[in-house]
Amino acid sequence: MAGQTDAIDTDHGAEPAHEADREKGPLRRCIATGAVQPKDGMIRFGIAPDGEVVPDLEERLPGRGLWLTAERTALDKAVSKGLFSKAARRAVRPPADLADRLARLLRRRCLDQIGLARRAGQAVAGFEKVREALKGGRVGTKGPPPGLLLEAADGSPDQRGKVTALAPGLPVLDLFESADLAAALGRDHAVHAVVAAGRLADGLSRDAARLRGIEGMTDGTVPADHGKQRI
Fold first, then answer.
1. CATH homologous superfamily of domain 101-230?
2. What is the DSSP letter of 78?
3. What are the phi and psi torsion angles at 61 (to 5°)?
4. How many CB atoms lie within 10 A of CB 108?
5. CATH 3.30.1230.10 fits 4-96, yes or no
6. Where in the chain is the domain with CATH 3.30.1230.10?
């Protein structure tokens, strides 16, 4: 069908994928698995002038983009088998600590987005404010509905359970400890927070899922306690 390949990264000869995948956005071919999939679940890499492979989370670096599924196994395979050089069609050099660098960048990106949501009035923190937002269906007095619940990984299971039970269908992000959440939210302490539905919550969910995959955890959204979805 005319125009179907427009959304695919044809640098690597990607074949058409299922229509269901096309509806999720632009498609790219993973240089490790060969799978064609929506780029939201992938990471773009660029090549620095000295030939070093660098993560391009903003997807803006010039030159051919090298795309990988956001999973540690795919990244390890690309490094160990020289797939970056093969895809780039020249000798390039992935740093030995590429996975760790990428994880740090994704963590920083997630925390920065949490801070941005707070400054934009799109996030609230603290047990009472989060409970109010979940029970009232609004983040803030007249804000959007909740889109993403943040729970500190080192928080009390009992307290976390009480909060998550208030919104059984809301995704939960629990990758960060309370000190990290507090710093991002401009507080002395933070265990519970909620981000309003919208662009910021969507971007944070995407990056958190990619971080989980690169850190070798379950990729994407999976069932968790209280019928929740953990990101």
1. Ribosomal protein L30/S12 (3.30.1330.30)
2. H
3. -65, 145
4. 13
5. yes
6. 4-96
> Measured between alpha carbons, how far is residue 121 from residues 22, 144, 170, 173, 196 in Å?
33, 10, 19, 19, 9
Residues 68-83 as b or e (16 or more Cβ within 10 Å = b): bbbbbebbebbbeeeb
List pLDDT tens digits, range 52-91: 999 999 999 999 899 999 999 999 999 999 999 999 999 9
Structure tokens belonging to residue 2? 């005319």
> What percent of the chain clears pLDDT 70, i.e. is strictly above it?
84
202: its two tokens:
């969507």
**pLDDT averaged over every residue in the chain:** 87
pLDDT per position as a tens digit, 38-51:
999 999 999 999 99
Residue 143: what residue type? G
